[in-house]
Design goal:
Elements lengths: L1 E6 L6 E4 L4 H10 L6 E5 L5 H12 L4 E4 L2 E5 L7 E2 L1 H6 L7 H8 L1 E5 L12 H9 L3 E5 L2 E5 L8 E3 L5 H12 L4 E5 L5 H12 L3 E3 L6 E4 L8 E3 L4 H14 L3 E4 L7 H9 L2 E6 L2 E6 L8 E2 L11 H8 L5 E5 L8 H7 L4 E5 L2 E5 L8 E3 L3 H13 L3 E5 L2 H6 L3 H7 L3 E6 L9
Parallel strand pairs: 2-15, 3-14, 6-7, 10-11, 18-19, 22-23
Antiparallel strand pairs: 1-23, 1-24, 3-5, 4-5, 7-9, 8-9, 11-13, 12-13, 15-17, 16-17, 19-21, 20-21
Bound molecules: uridine-diphosphate-N-acetylglucosamine.
Length: about 425
Amino acid sequence: MQSIRVTGGNPLSGTVTVGGAKNSGLKLMAAALLAPGVTTIHNMPDIADVDTMSEVIGGLGAPVRRDEHSLVIDATTVDSFEAPYEIVAKMRASIIVLGPLLGRLGRARVAMPGGCNIGSRKIDLHLRGLSQLGVQIASEHGYIEATAPHGMRGASIALDFPSVGATENLLMAGAAAWGTTVIENAAREPEIQDLIAFLNAMGARIEGAGTSTITIEGVSAFSPVTHGVVGDRIEAGTFLVAAALCGGPVTVAGVKPEHLDLVLAKLTAAGAEISTGPDEVTLQRGGPIRPVDAATLPYPGFPTDMQPQFMTLMAVANGTSVITENVFESRFMFADELGRMGADITIEGHRALVRGAARLSGAPVISPDLRGGAALVLAGLAAEGATTVGDIHHIMRGYESFVDKLAGLGADIALIDSDEGEGRGC
Ligand code: UD1
């Protein structure tokens, strides 16, 4: 087990390039199951979650080969329809194979994901939508058994909430259903738009990407494709917050600035000076960090996946801000760890009152989840003295070369063996 040790106070400057979006790449891998043949996906981040998804689809009969940042997926034969509990428990996003398996084989057996560190994360919207497409669903022994022996039928589906995962599962199932499917109140995230572009290149007929109404004309066959994953707006936003904490100028390359509209607006309000190019954003802090309220919402709202990082910035602002979490119910766990570093945060329900402190002080902390863990590393960059972040497997799930990239910008940061750190039990 390793930890990250960071000693705060170094200025950051230079250029860092982000990889392809984890939250798109994982879904594209699942979508590749629809097309018999060999699909190649470029700009794939080298992170643990991608390895887990490779295990899932390899287990279904479609082996995955990595060639640096490209994945070659051979879905010529898909001969299993089961995603076992051992893997789904490791990565909840594995349930995204439901839609493509139904499309390819008319059948799927997928372990029911349990809770996770950021909330209960139900899948009722996925299952209700699939049953509207004529899929018979049973839940037995901890598994979802989904069957559509005579194919799926297009339907009009209105989601109660624009769930990213439900929209994706329904897109992939609807693409292979007979007739027309309309998804109302669909998620609009850039990663959904990337998945639609990928499916359309495979032969699907989907309109309305990036809007709340998606219309799908089902097709009977898909062909393999070559596609590059959209840049990771959350990885980019994480480095931009690091720059705002430590000064900059830092240029983050490999991301579309328009995918970060609200994040950039909030960072500007907090005192950052920002300029953009077609595929990059440069940030330099103009003066003291100012307090700014933020409330998470589905895209194009402020991303829940940037909430912990932004709260870390607000923890050293020169005033009080309110951060409201509207997407996941338990996403403030890292705030207790931040408190151990001197942050003054009061949580009431889904709101956090953040009173900016003059400084944070380095401490041993534990990463509770992926984005919370990244936020604690950022806090360490701004804190006085050394911070040791434990349980970093959460961070490794989603950030490629996080330590090296921050070191490249000038941070005093290293991976250490955990027994060198001051880990705590919990
Ligand atoms: C995806 C992202 C995650 C991001 C989230 C919101 C991946 C692998 N993960 O997660 O990083 O934080 O979008 O942008 O892409 N809900 C239900 N019933 C459902 C589905 C969802 O009640 O059937 C609720 C969830 O509990 C949660 C909210 O809807 O409170 C949002 O979930 P959703 O948009 O589905 O997120 P994920 O696809 O799980």
